[in-house]
Design a protein that fits this description.
Blueprint: H1 2-13, H2 22-52, H3 68-72, E1 80-82, E2 85-87, H4 89-108, H5 115-123
Antiparallel strand pairs: 1-2
Helix pairs in contact: 2-4
Amino acid sequence: MKQTDAAKENYETTLSGWRHSAAWTYGIMLFFSAVALVTSLILSAETLALARAPKKLLSCDFNSVVSCSRVAQTWQAEIVKFGELSFPNAFFGIAAESVFVTLAVIGMIRVRVPRWFAICTWLG
């Protein structure tokens, strides 16, 4: 009898409503992942434009303080290097955010995934 009372109390304390649903959580994830994906695409295009013309001002250069072309020329803009070949971080953003968009869509349509996969998605 004690176990059923605890189960009933647990059921009564769970949150309900559309803001506490999986669709809301995955919808927020989809929105922000899509924003980050678009941002990575824009930064990748700006990086390619900077590679073609290093002295050119980019569209994200607002003034001398807020200047993405100066940031793109620092060593932190390209962390992964294979010898002389280096990849801008924005390219990795495209790959990573595509995965998160896919995970959000999978979650929104309520696909049952293996437990290990669900745990790995929460770990990032």
